[in-house]
Recover the amino acids of this structure.
């Protein structure tokens, strides 16, 4: 990003949405997070929930586009969602002392 700021490709303060290429529902994302945390069996009990009954009219997913950052900087996701969540969960588990100090 610094290179792109320096060469004028992007401007300071510009907003970018950064996302991978996989579209998932909120429920699927919650399940992926639970799996990454190693509590998949606990999350399984919620797989049968009828989302429309629980929260009528709620958003099933939030879709964002990374087109702008891809176009201007040639950025691309290098880690898929599940692997990224797993490595993030592992990092947090390994750095609890740091987290407590924040």
């Amino acid at each position: 990003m610094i290179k792109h700021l320096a060469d004028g490709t992007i401007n300071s303060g510009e907003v970018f949405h950064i996302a991978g290429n996989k579209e998932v529902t909120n429920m699927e994302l919650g399940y992926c997070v639970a799996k990454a945390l190693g509590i998949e069996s606990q999350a399984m009990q919620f797989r049968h929930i009828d989302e429309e009954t629980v929260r009528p009219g709620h958003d099933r997913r939030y879709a964002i586009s990374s087109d702008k950052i891809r176009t201007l900087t040639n950025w691309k996701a290098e880690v898929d969602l599940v692997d990224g969540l797993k490595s993030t969960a592992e990092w947090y588990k390994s750095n609890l002392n740091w987290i407590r100090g924040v």
Observations:
- Residues 10 and 82 are 30 Å apart (CA to CA).
- The chain has two domains: 1-22+66-102, 24-62.
- The chain is about 50% helix and 0% strand.
